């Protein structure tokens, strides 16, 4: 760890990255990638951000907001995502969500070595599911001062029959055929509402975050289902948790205008109902007009997200840290 070497990052001169080699798995060599701002805020406060499914870190504005509020900013591209996706690997492939714990262990260890003592662990969507589980039983959970979850993926956005019968059956089959691929069936309208090439505000690398999301392996489905079952049974995260989600779910698939003001990926009712099961100190906030990734919402909505977030952090972080 003493010889950490950062390299230039694709986001430009404000950012740099460090590739972390991990033990080989069932596909071969594995890495994860830690990204940080080159010019960090002073002091011990920091955030580690973890992206969602078919995703990677590209949100420059989010990093700038954290720095403006006195936080050092780091983001982690998990194994087989974005910067960490190697040519021999299947994108996003995982068989147990605990595989990501090693990535989080390494990132948190580096942050602590670099002087971060009040760390906010943040995750979006699938990243929200992963970091919630890690905050419950990860090796370095004691390093976490608070947890911020942006539209966490706590249940499948499916009808009752699929959620109660179809998904559990498919997850069971994933034990025996983990590499069998099935379509993810997520709406293309969500991606089109984001990217500048269509009608969105944002520019990002479409091969890593395509409009039509990557298919999933049955092993991935089994891993996600197991994570969802753990959330449903309840966790015991001792640190304060903030969960944010949109105030509504897209009701009419295909209507593009809805994807700019509602969650077009998950059912916000599931998030609202399951979040209190994370631990004894959970705050849940609905954001009017928010989209699935709240920090990519329209400017006025983003302002509300950041106001709520930093007011909450000021209230819950240890004295002298905020």
Molecular structure report:
There is one protein chain. By secondary structure, this protein is an alpha/beta fold. It has a single domain (about 5-315), classed as 3-Layer(aba) Sandwich (Rossmann fold). The protein has eight helices and eleven strands. It has helices at about 60-70, 100-115, 125-135, 160-175, 190-195, 220-235, 270-275, 300-315, and strands spanning about 5-10, 10-25, 30-35, 45-50, 70-75, 120-125, 145-150, 180, 215, 240-245, 280-285. A nine-stranded mixed beta sheet has the order 1-2-3-5-4-6-7-10-11, sandwiched between helices. Strand 6, helix 3 and strand 7 form a beta-alpha-beta unit. The longest helix is centred in the last third of the chain and has 18 residues, at about 300-315. The protein is globular. The two termini are about 30 Å apart. The model has no long low-confidence stretch (mean pLDDT about 95).
Average pLDDT reading: 94
β content, as a range? 15-25%
CATH homology-level superfamily: Alpha/Beta hydrolase fold, catalytic domain
Largest sheet: 9 strands, mixed
Assign a percent range to the helix content: 25-40%
Q: How many structural domains can be distinguished in the coordinates?
A: 1
- Strands, total number: 11
CATH architecture: 3-Layer(aba) Sandwich
């Amino acid at each position: 760890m003493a010889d950490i070497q950062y390299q230039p990052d694709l986001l430009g001169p404000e950012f740099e990255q460090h590739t972390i080699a991990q033990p080989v798995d069932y596909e071969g060599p594995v890495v994860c990638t830690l990204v940080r701002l080159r010019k960090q805020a002073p002091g011990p406060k920091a955030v580690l951000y973890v992206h969602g499914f078919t995703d990677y870190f590209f949100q420059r504005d989010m990093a700038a907001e954290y720095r403006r509020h006195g936080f050092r900013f780091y983001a982690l591209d998990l194994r087989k995502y974005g910067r960490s996706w190697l040519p021999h690997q299947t994108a996003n492939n995982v068989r147990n969500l605990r595989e990501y714990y090693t990535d989080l262990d390494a990132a948190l260890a580096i942050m602590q070595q670099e002087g971060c003592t009040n760390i906010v662990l943040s995750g979006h969507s699938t990243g929200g599911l992963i970091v919630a589980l890690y905050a419950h039983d990860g090796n370095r959970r004691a390093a976490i001062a608070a947890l911020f979850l942006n539209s966490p993926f706590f249940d499948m956005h499916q009808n009752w029959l699929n959620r109660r019968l179809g998904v559990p059956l498919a997850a069971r089959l994933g034990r025996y055929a983990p590499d069998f691929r099935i379509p993810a069936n997520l709406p293309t309208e969500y991606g089109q509402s984001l990217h500048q090439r269509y009608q969105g505000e944002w520019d990002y690398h479409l091969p890593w975050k395509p409009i039509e999301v990557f298919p999933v392996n049955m092993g991935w489905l089994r891993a996600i289902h197991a994570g969802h079952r753990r959330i449903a049974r309840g966790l015991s995260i001792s640190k304060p948790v903030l969960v944010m989600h949109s105030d509504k779910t897209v009701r009419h698939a295909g209507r593009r205008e809805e994807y700019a003001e509602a969650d077009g990926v998950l059912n916000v009712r599931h998030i609202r109902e399951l979040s209190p099961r994370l631990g004894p100190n959970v705050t849940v906030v609905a954001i009017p007009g928010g989209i699935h990734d709240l920090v990519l919402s329209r400017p006025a909505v983003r302002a509300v997200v950041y106001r709520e977030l930093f007011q909450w952090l000021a209230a819950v972080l240890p004295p002298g840290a905020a």
